[in-house]
Write a structure and sequence with these properties.
Blueprint: E1 6-15, E2 21-29, E3 34-38, H1 67-81, H2 89-100, H3 110-128, H4 132-137, E4 146-147, E5 149-153, E6 166-170, H5 177-197, H6 217-230, E7 240-244, H7 248-256, E8 262-264, E9 269-271, H8 273-286, E10 289-293, H9 301-311, E11 316-319, H10 327-335, E12 341-344, H11 346-349, H12 352-364, E13 368-372, H13 382-389, E14 394-396, H14 403-418
Parallel strand pairs: 4-14, 7-10, 10-11, 11-12, 12-13, 13-14
Antiparallel strand pairs: 1-2, 2-3, 5-6, 6-7, 8-9
Bound molecules: 2-phosphoglycolic acid (PGA) and zinc ion.
Length: 419
Amino acid sequence: MKEMPIKKIEASEIFDSRGNPTVKVDVILEDDTIGTSMVPSGASTGAYEAVELRDGDYQIFNGLGVKKAVDNVNKKIAKNLIGENVYNQVLIDEKMIDIDGTENKSKLGANAILGTSLAVARAASNSLKIPLYRYIGGISGNSIPIPMMNILNGGKHSSNNLNIQEFMIVPVGADDFKSSMQMCVEIYQVLKEILKQKGLSISVGDEGGFAPDLESDEEAIKIILDAIDMAGLKKDKDVKIALDVASSEMRDAAKKIQKEGYYFWKTDEYKNKDDMIDYIVKLSEKYPILSIEDGLAEEDWKDWKELTNKIGKKIYLVGDDLFVTNRKRLEKGIENKVANAILIKPNQIGTLTETLETIKIANKNGYKVIVSHRSGETEDTFIADLSVAVNSSYVKMGAPCRSERVAKYNRLLEIEKDI
Ligand code: PGA
Ligand code: ZN
């Protein structure tokens, strides 16, 4: 195998799209090639995600500083990886997992480990002078995913009254990525006009979708369907709806008031487990829905199974907080026939190698793969290349608004031209 030793690894504290500190890593090779990565950060994080190491000093950045994680890269990780062959991604990732030594990467921090892991891959592709998607995917990584574009924001990503976290449009009828972008962007602009005409807010949430107060979550779906119509497109045939309920947040809210089930804190409504399953099933029957993510909470395997039995043949049931890009949790899902699709967020698991492993298992078992950003993002477009490398069916990258989102769509446009 070709050799190119790592000469230097340098991390620093930068800021994400919410103005919170995050980790940037530069990996420098013997030939002076540099590979850079910037780590994203979630707001509605799953309980079983790898640990994002934060300083916890409330005098500085409200405890959210990442100086410890940066230090871990610059000292512990660098010491062990300098001299390593950059093309040896698996060995490098395994080494970091070993140095950390914990199940959830809590010692070094998943932010420290992932930042290094992705920067190593980028440095390798830069030094070979081939695009990142080609380096990761080889000649088989060559299809551009369909966007699940989040155009109305609710839940923890906004301060409006919508409970469901993400209302997305999916241009299933588009012939290629460029036209799928055109469809989505035109719907987004029409939606803006509809909201303006109704005298509603057009300010945006964390992922760039509009975040108005509406009468109900169902009204949000109806307004989007109107926008699809008014953009001259056919709902269902051209464009379907995808939802991320992010219901583990509603479970957490219920726990806070000593209840089981789901508490919709924004509208002060309570649903027990059966109500919640009914609610999800009804939504899937009433509207042209392609997929529902985290319709139930991350620990409710039994209810998830019931939901999968009920509508798993009709729509994609996507596990985000449920699977957290973790192969063990996905395998449990496969074994118990729970869900039929998985959200892939590299920072939930902490290395590129483990991310690819989880995707492989999903593909082998017929689970749809959706590569995803986080609500706190940076200008790093790594996930665009990753989605092409692994031929993922769909991607979640937010609205066509806010450059940390748009940069990723623009990267996909560039890749489409390339291949
Ligand atoms: P997060 O949200 O990045 O805030 O976790 C994204 C999602 O739930 O899909
Ligand atoms: Zn989610």
